[in-house]
């Protein structure tokens, strides 16, 4: 089980409703949708039990279940009240909109899973290191600007380089 995801043995078919999003897409390059919100965009899971389906109806099989509230996901398409989401490991499926929250969270990413990401007292590499975070740590995103994000979680609060996070776009400003 990765990222609080329980697989149910169903393989997702590629090319489900909606256009795929290319790497490097950002919220500022997005197109408004029927919801009036841009796609792609980051959101988080609202519940500790989120069914992810192979298609955008309850008639589609549940492919897996997320079991971790607050996990960031990227909305890559919309169909009526359904959202196609992708997680930090690239898994994609459809989730009912009410199971998603606009609350911003992010996952710490590193080139090697054994590396640690420095969390600083302020947005400056010369600042004191407040903590070192492992890859996969999920944090609330409080603010991002100028390549730095202020994040917080259980037992930590500080600034991290934006490139170390999955859940915010490069150079995205978050208030």
Summarize this structure as a short list of keywords or feature phrases.
175 residues, SH3 type barrels, 2 domains, five-stranded antiparallel sheet, 17 strands, 45% strand, globular
Q: Examine the secondary-structure arrangement and name the CATH architecture of the largest domain.
A: Roll
- Radius of gyration, in Å, reads 16 Å
Number of strands: 17
Q: The CATH topology of the largest domain, please?
A: SH3 type barrels
Given the C-alpha coordinates, what overall shape results? globular
Distance between the termini: 33 Å
Which structural class is indicated by helix and strand composition? mainly beta
Give the neighbour order of strands across the main sheet: 9-8-7-4-10
The CATH class assignment of the largest domain is Mainly Beta
Secondary structure tally, helices: 0
Poorly predicted parts: 9-26
Number of domains: 2
On the 0 to 100 scale, the average pLDDT is 87
Strand content of the residues, in percent?
35-45%
Describe this structure in words.
It is globular and about 55 Å long. The chain has strands at 5-7, 31-32, 38-39, 41-45, 50-53, 62-66, 72-79, 82-86, 92-96, 100-101, 105-108, 116-120, 129-134, 138-145, 148-153, 156-161, 165-166. It contains no helices and 17 strands. The two termini are 33 Å apart. Helix content is 0%, strand content 45%. It has 2 domains: 5-103, SH3 Domains (SH3 type barrels); 107-166, Roll (SH3 type barrels). It is mainly beta and 175 residues long. The relative contact order is 0.18. A 5-stranded antiparallel sheet has the order 9-8-7-4-10, with no helix packed on it. Strands 16-15-14-11-17 form a 5-stranded antiparallel sheet, with no helix packed on it.
């Amino acid at each position: 089980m990765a990222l609080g995801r329980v697989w149910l043995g169903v393989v997702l078919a590629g090319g489900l409703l909606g256009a795929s999003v290319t790497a490097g897409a950002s919220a500022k390059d997005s197109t408004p949708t029927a919801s009036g919100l841009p796609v792609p965009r980051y959101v988080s899971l609202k519940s500790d039990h989120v069914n992810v389906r192979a298609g955008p109806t309850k008639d589609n099989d549940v492919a897996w279940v997320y079991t971790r509230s607050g996990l960031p996901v990227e909305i890559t398409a919309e169909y009526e009240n359904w959202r196609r989401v992708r997680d930090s490991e690239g898994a994609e499926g459809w989730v009912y909109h009410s199971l998603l929250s606009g609350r911003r969270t992010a996952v710490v990413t590193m080139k090697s899973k054994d590396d640690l990401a420095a969390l600083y007292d302020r947005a400056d590499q010369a600042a004191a290191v407040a903590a070192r975070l492992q890859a996969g740590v999920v944090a609330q995103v409080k603010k991002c600007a100028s390549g730095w994000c202020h994040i917080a979680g259980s037992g930590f609060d500080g600034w991290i380089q934006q490139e170390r996070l999955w859940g915010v776009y490069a150079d995205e400003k978050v208030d």
